[in-house]
Amino acid sequence: MQKDKLGKEGEGLALQALLNKGYQLVERNYRIDRGEIDLIFKDKNDIVFCEVKTRSNEYLGEPWRQVGFAKQRQLIKTANAYIRKMDVYEEARFDIVSIVLNEKRCKVEHIIGAFAP
Question: Which of 92, 101, 112, 115 is 20 to 30 A (C-alpha) from 66?
């Protein structure tokens, strides 16, 4: 499967998984400067910034392991810009949805509070 198509399909699966948990979608693919946040949700009293990582296999490790320090720093910077722009007062949280998707399996793992600023 092509990388872009795989990523979009994974993002759709992540969106549906979190909606099924009762999260409310606020924004999808929020972009500012060079940063992007895949999904932004409300979960009770929290604003949740969600990074989605999709791979077709786990040969290089689980997809969530690809969210390293530099990516976390960029997500935090983008989230801070969003918070300022939208006057958000809720507690912020960073989640990762890690997906392995191929013709044989679909594994979706939601990591709540995956990292903190």
Answer: 92
Contact by Cβ (8 Å): 50, 39: yes
Q: Which tens digits make up the pLDDT trace of 1-24?
A: 577 888 899 999 999 999 999 999
108: β partners: 99
Report DSSP letters for the chain, one per residue: --HHHHHHHHHHHHHHHHHHTT-EEEEEEEEETTEEEEEEEEETTEEEEEEEEEES--TT--GGGG--HHHHHHHHHHHHHHHHHHT--SEEEEEEEEEEESSS-EEEEEEEEEE--
| Contacts for 46 with CB less than 8 Å, ≥ 6 apart | 90, 91, 92, 93
User: Six-digit token pair at 20?
Assistant: 């099924």
Q: For domain 3-115, is the CATH number 3.40.1350.10?
A: yes
Rounded CA separation 108/12 (Å): 11
